[in-house]
Structure formats: C-alpha cells, structure tokens
Amino acid sequence: MKRTMLALACALALSVPTIAGAADDNYGCDAVNFGQEVLAKLPNAKKLCRGVTEKNGGVYVKYVGRVVDTSADATTIEFLDKDNKAVSRAKFKPAAGQMASVNGKQMKYSELKKGTELRFYIENKRWGLFGAPNDTAMQILSVQQL
Q1: Overall domain count for the chain
Q2: pTM of the entire structure?
Q3: pLDDT bucket at 1, cuts 50 / 70 / 90
Q4: 86 falls within a domain
C-alpha cells in the first residue's frame, strides 16, 4: 500500500510541471486586456500574440514580423501568426538612430533584408510599435489587414 501511494505521489509530482507547461503554450496571450485603439488598428492582436511581458508598469505584447520592404524612410513588415502566416501588414518609421535586433546583432532598419524576421511589441492599452518594451515608439504610417 505504501509503495502504491509513493508511486502515485511521484507520478502526480512529475505531471504537475507538464500541466503548467501546457498552460504556458498560450504565452499569457489569452489573459491580455487590449485597449480599443489597439483592437481598432490591429483586430487580430490576440491571434498574432507570441508572448507577454511587463516593463515600466506597462504590459507589452510580443509579435513576430517579417520584413517585406525597407528604405531610408520606412520599413514594411507582415505580422505573422503562430503558423508563420502573414495576417496584417504595417509600415512604420523608426526614430532617428533606432536599431533593430537581428539574431543578437543591432542593425539599421534601412539595412534589413527582405524576409528577415523581427520581434516587435505593442503596449496592450495604447497603439504604438516598439522594437523592445523599453525602446522608443516607432511612427506607424499605415496598417492593412491581409
């Protein structure tokens, strides 16, 4: 009887991290309360979410974007869903001197190659695109649903 109880307790203890890990598959996205401005500009905000982080009192939602076009004036990306399917397109202008992080390297947005994947953040309550939660907001020129 003791052996059975011990085996049951061990099995339960080993299954708890698995259950907790399964809950993390949503990356906290289901719990985000998006503001009306964000949902008006990016209706698929929750579907495109790849994770959530808190920084300086704000909740920032992580997104993945693929570069479609870039110039000295602006960069255009496609927001990708969890299946890497393009769902929305945004054109934005980085702040002067603002850099993109690509595989741990800092690069000028104007030097990014078509197809490069980047991480972006949007604060859940207000519309704005950030390269990192503690970065300067980039000027969003247009957004289009695909």
Answers
A1: 1
A2: 0.77
A3: low
A4: yes
pLDDT in tens, 39-50: 999 999 999 999
In a domain, 77, yes or no: yes
Strand, coil or helix: what is 89? strand
What are 84-143's pLDDT values in tens digits? 999 999 999 998 889 999 988 999 999 999 999 999 999 999 899 999 998 899 999 999
Distances (CA, A) of 89 to 22, 24, 48, 120, 144: 30, 27, 12, 13, 5
Give the containing element (helix H, strand E) for 20: helix 2-23
* Residue 62 counted as domain residue: yes
Tokens 């949902």 belong to: 39
**Sign of torsion, CA 101 121 40 46?**
positive
Q: Supply 142's token pair.
A: 């247009």
Residue whose entry in the numeric block shows the structure tokens 């704005």: 128
Which of 72, 70, 112 is CA-nearest to residue 91?
A: 70
CB 63 within 8 A of CB 121: yes
Count Cβ neighbours within 10 Å for each residue of 50-59 and write b for 16 or more, e otherwise. bbbeeeeeeb
